[in-house]
Design goal:
flat; 11 helices; single chain; about 300 residues; about 80% helix; mainly alpha
């Protein structure tokens, strides 16, 4: 399968939109899972796109930036990994490790280059502000978006337009003489989400909420085992008897998400209660002191009257 010019242009335009959305609009469409879904839709295999996008989404769960720091571009990596996986028949796990992660890391350099180029337009804006040139401010602010968009669009376009032959050759070798390397890449691609979870847990207050971590892991493991066993049993019965038509679905991730949401709500309410108690504590004690003073004053007046 070869890329059509329409597919190349759509994937390039979407990769340019990704960085613009991340910097300006913040619609959450600039996430690897969305990049995988949209790239898969353009390539005609949404399932593969979602698998690759979800894996890279989990990989970068704990990755963030502060100030002007750059981070790996998992969105562009997802777009290219999805396109080449579907276009060349490469397995999703192999595409993640061989294309998605290297491309995401490589585009960090393009991100830095875009930041350097953007400073030119920002200095123009500074001069426009000094000269009260409002139209110039708007014009140069909009033009400042171009380096960012081109830093993603040009590499993605060149990779899609010129790199398919190279990737096809690589797939042929990976499935032949380099099968051992293919197996290693698949293993690495499958373990990358665990790395993302580990990075995320490093920043979360795990020690404080360790009980929730154990509970979530245990519930997930139990439900996964239960649903897998029931699904296997149903498949066996269907094979033994054609009259058996019941359908057994796999574990719904929505169930796990709802359990996690319920635990989060409980913890949130507990935290709010503590905050309210801490806030109301000093006020309540001061009110009690005021009431005591009033009682003492009243008693003092009464005692004084009695003495007179």
């Amino acid at each position: 399968m070869s890329f059509t010019i329409v597919q190349i242009l759509l994937l390039t335009a979407y990769s340019m939109y990704n960085i613009y959305d991340e910097l300006q609009m913040n619609s959450s469409l600039s996430q690897p899972v969305w990049a995988g879904m949209i790239a898969g839709l353009i390539m005609g295999d949404m399932k593969t796109g979602l698998v690759i996008g979800a894996a890279l989404q989990l990989t970068v769960l704990g990755v963030g930036t502060f100030g002007g720091a750059s981070k790996i571009d998992a969105n562009s990596g997802t777009v290219l990994a999805t396109a080449f996986s579907i276009g060349t028949g490469m397995k999703a796990a192999t595409a993640i490790a061989a294309i998605g992660v290297p491309v995401a890391a490589l585009l960090t350099s393009f991100d830095i280059l875009a930041r350097f180029a953007n400073t030119y337009f920002q200095h123009k804006v500074d001069k426009d502000i000094e000269n009260f040139n409002y139209k110039g401010i708007e014009r140069h602010a909009i033009m400042g978006v171009l380096p960012w968009c081109l830093s993603r669009g040009i590499p993605v376009f060149l990779a899609l337009a010129l790199g398919q032959g190279v990737v096809k050759t690589m797939v042929t070798y990976l499935n032949g003489d380099l099968q051992w390397l293919n197996t290693g890449l698949q293993t690495a691609g499958a373990t990358l989400p665990a790395v993302g979870f580990a990075i995320l847990l490093h920043y979360l207050p795990v020690k404080k909420h360790f009980a929730y971590l154990i509970l979530g892991f245990t519930i997930t493991a139990l439900l996964s085992t239960l649903f897998t066993s029931v699904q296997t049993l149903g498949a066996g019965l269907s094979g033994a008897s054609k009259a058996f038509t019941a359908t057994f679905n796999a574990l719904p991730m929505l169930a796990i998400a709802l359990i996690g949401g319920a635990l989060a709500i409980l913890e949130y309410k507990k935290s709010i209660t503590k905050i309210n108690a801490a806030t109301a504590g000093p006020a309540a004690s001061s009110d009690d002191e005021d009431e005591d003073d009033e009682i003492e004053d009243a008693n003092g007046e009464v005692d004084g009257d009695e003495e007179e």
